Amino acid sequence: MTMKLHRNRTVDDGAEEVQRPEDERLGVGRSFAYGAQHVLTMYGGIIAPPLIVGGAAGVPPAQLGVLVASCLFIGGLATILQSVGIPWFGSQLPLVQGTSFASVATLVAIVTQGGGLPAAFGSVMASAAIGLAITPFFARIIRFFPPVVTGTVITTIGLSLMPVAANWAMGNNAKLPTFGSIENIMLAGFTLLVVIILSRSNVPAISRLSILFAIIIGTAVATVLGKADFSKVADGPIVAFPEPFFFGAPVFTVAGVLSMTIVVLVILTETTADILAVGEIVKTRVDRRRIGNGLRADMGASLVSPIFNGFVQSAFAQNVGLVAITGVKSRFVVTAGGAILVILGLLPVLGRGVAAVPYPVLGGAGLVLFGTVAASGIRTLARVNYQGNMNLVIVATSVGMGMIPIAAPNFWEHFPAWFQTIFHSGISSAAIAAVLLNLFFNHIRFARQKPGSSVFAAADRFIAFDEVQAYSKLREGDHIEGGRIVDADGKPLRVKQSDGQLVDVPICAGSGDH
């Protein structure tokens, strides 16, 4: 009996061909229907970065539409590259690509330091080239980006973007007389309320698209109140190919490239996690080569992205969740979604329409959107082991460093310009601190402390809720004896942990207390 090779799988002649789950073809109609669902799920996330960075750079509304359309276009191409794959590029998994939120805070710092969008594009190109060069060795570098580092960075990203949401809610332009008005803030609050109400819907589609629907509803209300101006949406072409280097040739600065390289390392870590996660969901084999191909697609798309006025590309985690929820594992569904993004990117009129959405509406939705990023980081930090180590100090110090530019924007103003560009970004500050402290405490042998030798290491012992319940049930006669709490008969008071084990209730009081 002869053998033949089919889609990386060996099968017997005459037997039914065995395909990878992600290679399933659902037909054009169903693929585009499910692909549209992917686009709607990540649409708010993919248009927010160009709005934030473009707004910080002072881009006028008409050109802001070009920036939005460009990011949609390059996100679609990156998605097709990742899902279809070519030799050396693309994981061939159902992964949707788009502008990374992890880069937003750093890009804002770069454009506001005098370099404008050209400096941002140059920093993205150079850092992506560095990321592309290190992908073969990233398996060795990734150990320096454990959850204590990535969780800290992602949390800081979300927190760093909160001022953006607040500024949007107030009107985004302090020179306008309506900036910070009750009307603006009420409109933002209404949009936020709509997000919360729709998120509670028992209809999955409505719940998952709550932010997009809330923006539409909030914009409709703003239009009725006369706070939305769509008069300039028709100005300009309806269909157009993104003009290369529309905002000028890229400018390369050492500080900008260094700060973006830090972000790229975090993005590579996130994309690796997304590839592993979607591989587990799809129930397909993911090896080192496949991860490398996926990372090269990430960095290759990011390298080309600035040519078409786009930013750093990465896999969207929310779409990984959508694969798990729907059970649709076909990578060609995601390819169809990428095609939809490309089409949307060829419609600058759509970008101008998005740019015309009132900022207070975006502020109300942004509060949830950016808060979700922070919550995702907190969820990652919840997986970190804090017992008998200095991880608590790593998180505390790094988040504190990341919050300095937010709490005191002029904190570093007397330092050199290159230093300001790096540390003016909360994400860069937190990432540098987290990586260095993790190296010091968890990788350098002499810096490791013995269990219980540090007040910070000991500070991670908090009373769990079930232990509090046990304390609340103490009765008269219960007392401390032999280092544990016992009842009047001398029997130890015990509590059931989350894993079902019964343990003695820990003593946090002084000896002799009852």
From TrEMBL:
Superkingdom of origin: Bacteria
Entry keywords, A to Z:
Cell membrane, Membrane, Transmembrane, Transmembrane helix, Transport
GO MF terms here are:
xanthine transmembrane transporter activity
Q: Which residues span the membrane?
A: 40-58, 64-81, 93-111, 117-138, 145-166, 178-198, 205-225, 245-268, 332-351, 357-378, 390-412, 418-441
* Membrane topology category: Multi-pass membrane protein
A GO cellular component entry from the record: plasma membrane
Q: Name one Pfam family in it.
A: Xan_ur_permease
Subcellular location(s): the record lists: Cell membrane
**Matching PROSITE patterns:** XANTH_URACIL_PERMASE
Which segments carry the region annotation Disordered? 1-22
| InterPro entries, alphabetized | NCS2, UacT-like, Xan_ur_permease
Q: Where is the composition biased (Basic and acidic residues)?
A: 9-22
Keyword Membrane found: yes
Q: Give the family per the record.
A: Belongs to the nucleobase:cation symporter-2 (NCS2) (TC 2.A.40) family.
Q: What NCBIfam families does UniProt report for this protein, alphabetically?
A: ncs2, NCS2_1, pbuX
Q: What is this protein called?
A: Uracil permease
> Can you name the source organism?
Mycobacterium dioxanotrophicus
The root-end lineage is: Bacteria, Bacillati, Actinomycetota, Actinomycetes, Mycobacteriales
